[in-house]
Design goal:
4-stranded antiparallel β-sheet, mainly beta, globular
Length: 412
């Protein structure tokens, strides 16, 4: 696996119409950290981000910048503009604390500072900012509703997640499909603990708040988590089989979905002796889930259409992606990206008959992220590459032109 000089360290995330980044001064030169949707970010502990709407970039000891769509409104943290194809400064000094992590949802943004404080801005109609209101915020506001400092944040389309220093998972925002994992479908303007219910046959889920959480990820209408012991958990919408379980039968077991097929509490994705309950990377896409195992295999569940008795159904069974080996990380939204141990990136449309193909023009890649329309990759030299949709300037190149192949992101 290629490695990066710490002075050029970069992490990447891509949202629906945006990408995120943090730049901080190092002893010599600068290192950049970019955050892209649906991925693990090991800053202050393992982090997973699921942005869906614009681009944020920040310096640890300087202002945060953002670009892309601002029609949330104000997910860029700047009032009076509809968007920007180049970075603009977010209107906050974050309490004079260095920002160590960013996450972005469909139309909202989150930041985590070094003292464990979570900040939010942008659309808040579903309480996705977690500040106890549903008032949109043009500039970042501090969340005082969490029980203590956090080590990780993540964002789905209209909901948010965090891991506290005690490794307990919390969620807030839209909950129509059970994506908060608290056993209800009640939208919450403040964080609620993700709570499990003991499940027969897995030995993974004791009843009570979800703790010992290592990773979290937010998708369009569902969420994922990995426990420190290795269990892969999922909750929320199962419309496309993304929870890795069938639709409910006549008498659901504890933890099984209630109509219309949502799981309101965490369940084990990989249930049964054939599939190990371990993961080193997870991604929650719009209609499927992706899991990279320590064996370097990749499994997905959901998103595969089948015809049964003349009707379209979606395959819920966790299925290994063919033609991939040596995979160390995954990212996903409409398509799956997979990074192999040699620094090559592969793309795959889940359920398609074609095998995964290698993305041309980039090598020695150390991080990958996938947005709803665009993709990001970071190489060991610290160059960020972007390709795909650019209708709102989410590639950060000063244009709104579609790019079929990766091109370097132009930072100021």
């Amino acid at each position: 696996m290629p490695t990066m000089d710490p002075r050029n360290r970069v992490k990447i995330v891509a949202g629906g119409l945006h990408s995120l980044a943090r730049r901080a001064p190092a002893t010599q030169g600068f290192f950049v950290e970019l955050y892209a949707v649906l991925s693990r970010i090991p800053i202050l502990g393992p982090l997973v981000f699921e942005p869906l709407g614009r681009v944020l970039r920040l310096k640890v000891t300087t202002p945060v910048f953002a670009w892309g769509s601002n029609m949330g409104p104000s997910q860029l943290g700047v009032a009076g503009i509809s968007g920007s194809q180049v970075p603009v400064s977010v209107g906050s000094n974050f309490g004079d604390r260095p920002v160590v992590a960013l996450a972005a949802g469909g139309t909202h943004s989150l930041a985590l500072t070094a003292d464990g404080t979570v900040w939010g801005w942008g659309r808040n109609t579903d309480g996705q900012l977690g500040d106890g209101t549903n008032v949109n915020r043009e500039v970042p506001v501090k969340l005082t509703t969490l029980p203590g400092p956090c080590i990780a944040i993540a964002a789905g389309d209209q909901h948010s997640l965090a891991i506290t220093a005690e490794k307990v998972a919390y969620a807030w925002g839209n909950n129509v499909n059970g994506q908060l994992g608290d056993g209800t479908t009640n939208t919450s303007w403040t964080p609620v603990p993700v709570s499990a219910q003991a499940e027969d046959g897995t030995g993974v889920l004791p009843s009570g708040p979800l703790n010992d959480v290592l990773l979290v990820a937010g998708g369009l209408l569902h969420s994922l988590a990995v426990l420190e012991g290795g269990g892969v958990l999922v909750w929320g919408s199962n419309q496309f089989g993304q929870c890795g379980r069938p639709a409910p039968s006549t008498a659901p077991l504890p933890g099984e979905p209630v109509p219309p097929g949502n799981y309101l509490r965490p369940i084990a994705v990989m249930r049964g002796p054939a599939l190990p309950l371990l993961a080193k990377s997870i991604a929650a896409a719009s209609g499927f889930s992706a899991i990279a195992l320590p064996t370097a295999q990749v499994f997905t569940c959901g998103g595969i259409e089948k015809i049964l008795s003349g009707a379209i159904v979606y395959d819920h069974t966790p299925t290994e992606v063919p033609g991939l080996s040596g995979i160390v990380a995954v990212a996903a939204h409409s398509q799956l990206l997979a990074l192999d141990v040699n620094g090559n990136v592969h793309r795959y449309r889940v359920g398609a008959p074609q095998a995964p193909v290698q993305v041309p023009g980039i090598s020695n890649v150390v991080e990958i992220r996938a947005g709803s329309e665009h993709y990001l990759a970071l190489d060991s030299a610290g160059t960020v590459w972007a390709w795909g949709g650019n209708s709102m300037g989410q590639l950060g190149d000063g244009t709104n032109l579609f790019r079929a192949e990766p091109a370097p992101v132009q930072f100021p």
